[in-house]
Design a protein that fits this description.
The protein has 445 residues and is of the alpha+beta class. Helix content is 24%, strand content 33%. The radius of gyration is 45 Å and the shape is elongated.
């Protein structure tokens, strides 16, 4: 029986644990905020029709270059010309009425003066004198009315001529025709909303990228920051830009609030087109000559000591031996966070592998991250934290490698963390040092 137990124990003995490491490097870390948006011309104009009528000519097409004032289309002017002639006739009639009113006023003035002289000589009655004066006042009022009618008729004629001129649609700016929504013979109705006939862009060598920045990142984005973006049309190519303007008006979605940021884009080679979807990365921070580690190193947890190190035999049904190497079966997946309470707080320490392969914990301060790598610096209290930091879930301060009451293993054991042998400062950041990012258990021999 004893031999069977010993054989079973040897078969269940923990296999040597190996670690996946990445060299510690120094370099530049660029922190960015990612946002998605669309490209648009800097100065685009929707050109519509202000008058109603049938299009008789369309003189430009998509991608044509036009100059300011160039004729682009013409609406049938027949009805507009008829209105001009009608307004001209009304103006002539008003002018004639004004001349007649002026003559009547002159006649009333003469009669009023003569009646006043006769009244002074008692040759006419007072009623006749009052009638002459009233006729003079009416003549003056009639002249004012005729003058006002002449002004109205002149304004109507000016409006009719303006409508006739707008039957010829001209380019308001010099640029390129982006779209054309009409064909000759089509009837255009100008009502409460002006129909869009053409869309013009002043210059496609300068574009704007409008992106939506999440409210959690908007505080990091500032005007003038450099940025880059990519489009699906050019895989592998990155375009440069910069933040031009930030809008204060929020856009509320179903679960998130965003703010619009405008990025200036140089498009001298005309490779980019309006409407393209772009994914932009705005550079919010740039750190030079800093220690760089894989983000998986900040989430790595060394496996717990196996049950064989606890001084009893892991007989089936008595105690929990756990998987070989302790911790999670098969080791922690790269970049996967350990369960709550499994080790030190995530993101404030890394583990360095010494010459014997033993993980050595080093408290660090995370300065920034780009989502893949993090810039770290050793904490000033690294030596004290390595010896006095309590293990999460324990009742009081313990040494980092003490798990379930076991003493720290000497250098050379697998999966256990040993304190500095001389009680000094412990591991330090060195270029090329092996930073543990994963753990794997060797298969059965």
């Amino acid at each position: 029986m004893t031999g069977s137990v010993l054989a079973w124990q040897r078969a269940r003995a923990p296999k040597p644990t190996t670690f996946v490491t990445a060299p510690l490097t120094k370099g530049e870390l660029v922190q960015t905020v990612t946002a998605v948006g669309t490209l648009a011309p800097v100065d685009a104009v929707d050109l519509g029709a202000e008058v109603t009528g049938r299009l008789v000519r369309v003189l430009v097409d998509v991608n044509d270059h036009v100059e300011a004032g160039q004729v682009m289309a013409e609406i049938d002017p027949e009805q507009l010309e008829a209105r001009v002639r009608q307004s001209q006739a009304q103006l002539q009639s008003a002018n004639a009425s004004q001349v007649s009113a002026r003559v009547s006023l002159k006649e009333a003035q003469v009669k009023a003066e003569r009646t006043a002289e006769l009244f002074a000589q008692n040759l006419v009655t007072g009623d006749e004198n009052d009638t002459a004066r009233a006729a003079l006042d009416r003549a003056q009022a009639n002249l004012s009315v005729a003058t006002a009618q002449t002004i109205v008729a002149g304004a109507d004629l000016s409006s009719a001529r303006s409508q006739l001129a707008r039957a010829v649609i001209r380019a308001p700016i010099a640029g390129i025709v982006l779209s054309r929504a009409i064909e000759p013979g089509q009837t255009v109705t100008a009502g409460f909303q002006t129909p869009v006939l053409f869309t013009l862009a002043r210059d496609l060598s300068k574009l704007e990228l409008s992106v939506e920045v999440d409210e959690a990142d908007i505080a990091k984005v500032q005007e003038g920051q450099t940025a880059s973006f990519v489009v699906d049309a050019y895989p592998g190519r990155t375009f440069a830009s910069r933040v031009l303007k930030l809008h204060n008006l929020p856009k509320a979605g179903i679960t998130v609030v965003t703010y619009t940021a405008l990025l200036a884009v140089d498009n001298e080679d005309r490779s980019l087109r309006p409407g393209m979807t772009a994914t932009a990365a705005v550079v919010t921070d740039r750190l030079s000559d800093v220690w760089l580690v894989d983000n998986a190193a900040l989430r790595f947890e060394p496996p717990r000591p196996a049950a064989a190190r606890r001084g009893f035999l892991p007989i089936p049904g008595f105690g929990a031996g756990g998987p070989p190497g302790g911790g999670r079966a098969g080791g922690a997946a790269r970049g996967a966070a350990g369960p709550p309470g499994a080790g030190a707080e995530s993101g404030d320490r890394i583990f360095l592998a010494d010459a014997a392969g033993v993980p050595r914990r080093l408290p660090v301060q995370v300065l920034a991250t780009d989502g893949t790598r993090s810039a770290v610096a050793p904490r000033a209290d690294a030596a004290r934290a390595a010896g006095r930091r309590p293990h999460p879930g324990a009742g009081g301060p313990t040494r980092p490698a003490a798990v379930d009451g076991a003493e720290p293993r000497p250098p050379g054991g697998d999966g256990a963390e040993a304190p500095p042998a001389d009680g000094g400062e412990g591991p330090a950041l060195e270029l090329g040092a092996a930073v543990i990012v994963d753990v794997a258990v060797a298969g059965p021999s």
